[in-house]
Amino acid sequence: MSHHTLAADGDGLDPETAAKAAAARDALAERDGVLVAFSGGVDSAVVAALAREALGDDAVACTARSETLPAAELDDAKRVAGEIGIRHETVAFSELDDPEFVANDGDRCYHCRTMRLGRMYETAEELGIGTVCDGTNADDPGEGHRPGLRAVEELDVVSPLLDAGISKAEVREIAEAYDLSVADKPSMACLSSRIPTGLEVTEARLTRVEKAERVLREWGFEGFRVRDHDGLARVEIAPDELERALDPAFADAVHEHLTDLGFDYVTLDMAGYRTGSVSPGGGEGDDGGRESDGDGEGDGDRNDGDEEGDIDRNDGGSDPNLGRRYPR
C-alpha cells in the first residue's frame, strides 16, 4: 500500500479540491478493478494514487513503451509507480507500424492514442480488469487542438479527474497532498511532437531528437525543445535560460554535438521555448500530448518534464565556468 493516503481527508487541501478528490477516489472504489494508463506524469500519477487507495491490489498502472517515449521517462514512470505503491506493468508497441501516424498529419495524436489505449485494453483483459482509466483533467478539453481526446471518448476510457471536475492546478495540489515527487513536474509531450506536421515520423528522427535533448538536459537546461525540421535542428530554450544559450561556448558545443548526432544544421530560436510550435493550433502536438494522458500523455505529457542528472540550474548572468559545462 502507498505510504500516503489522500490528504483530502485531512488538512492539506482546499475544501472544494478535497471534495473533488474524494469523489474521484470514491467513484474508483465502486469498480472491481482499474488499469491506469500511466506515463508517470502528474495527471496519471494522481489517478494511480487515487486508484491505489480506493482499490488496493485491484489497481494497476500500465506504461506503453514505444519509440516516442524517452528512456528517461520510462525510468521515471517505474520510479513513481514504486513511490505510489501500485503494481506497474509495461507493454510494448510501435506507432511506426501505423502509416497514418507516420504521415504526421493533424490527427497524429489521435492515431497514437488509439493504438496506445488499445494496448491498455488488451492488457486489462489479460489481467481480468474491465476498466481503463486515463489522466485527462478538466482543463484538457478546452486547450485547443486535442485530437487524442477523441480516441479517449471513442474507446470509452474513464477519466476520473475530468469526471470530478479537477483542474490541472488542483491535480498538482492533490499530488502534493499525496507527497508525490512529480507534483511540480512540467507537462511532457511525446518525441513525435518535435517533428513538424506533414514531415514523416521516423525512428531516425525520433532517436536524434531524444539524444539531442538528453545533451541539453545534462548541461542543466530545464525548459527546452529540439525540433527536427528535416535535418535542421531548431533549439528552443525557455526565456529565463536563454542568456546561457547566447554564449559562444554554448553555440560551439551545441553545434558540434548535434551535428555529430546527424543534424545538418543547428539553429537557436530567438522566440524561445513554447509548446506546440510545430503543431496545428499549438495544442496536443506538444505538451498537451503526453500528460494530457492517454497513458498519462502530455504531463507528458514529454519534456513534459524528465529532469535527469544533478547539475544545478543557472538562471542567468555570466558564468565563468560556462565552457566547462559544454564539453567538446
Description:
50% of the residues are buried. α3 links the parallel β2 and β3. The strands form two sheets. Strands 3-2-1-4 form a four-stranded parallel sheet, sandwiched between helices. It is α/β, with parallel strands linked by helices and 328 residues long. About 14% of the residues have low confidence. The protein contains twelve helices and seven strands. This is ATP-dependent sacrificial sulfur transferase LarE. It holds the Pfam family Asn_synthase. Keywords: Transferase. GO terms for molecular function: transferase activity.
- The SSE order reads HEHEHEHHEHHHHEEHHEH
Helix content percent band: 25-40%
- Quaternary state reads single chain
- Give average pLDDT, whole number: 83
How many strands?
7
List the uncertain runs.
Answer: 280-324
Please state how the strands of the largest beta sheet are arranged side by side.
3-2-1-4
Number of helices: 12
Terminus-to-terminus distance: 47 Å
